[in-house]
Amino acid sequence: MRRMELHTVSTPKISYTMTEAELATGLSRASLYRAIARGELRRQKIGKRTLILSEDLRAFCGGGLDRLAEALARATQLNRRTAE
Question: How many angstroms separate the CA atoms of 68 and 74, rounded?
Fold first, then answer.
């Protein structure tokens, strides 16, 4: 009988487990679940597993920078108004 060897092929990930998403983003599990609850991050349930598609995770992280910039702009405007 011939022995089959398994070769690992490097393929891009199409989804992340919650633990992988934590490691990839540097965010806590709780932060990711809060983003899911707010509708900012989509998730897929497959059985008991929660998966996040890579495109959704990338969109969320990119959108995070936009939200941060908007929050900083609002804070700057409020500071200017209170200083007047």
Answer: 10
Task: Please calculate the CA angle 36-38-42 and round it to the nearest 5 degrees.
Answer: 35
Give me the tens of pLDDT residue by residue for the chain, a chain 84 residues long.
556 565 556 677 899 999 999 998 888 999 999 999 999 999 999 999 999 998 898 888 886 556 655 656 666 676 676 666
CA 33, CA 31: separation in Å to the nearest integer? 5
Do the strands 15-17 and 49-53 form a parallel or antiparallel pair, or are they unpaired?
antiparallel
pTM of the predicted model as reported, rounded to 2 decimal places: 0.62
Amino acid at 2: R
Distance CA 16, CA 84 (A): 49
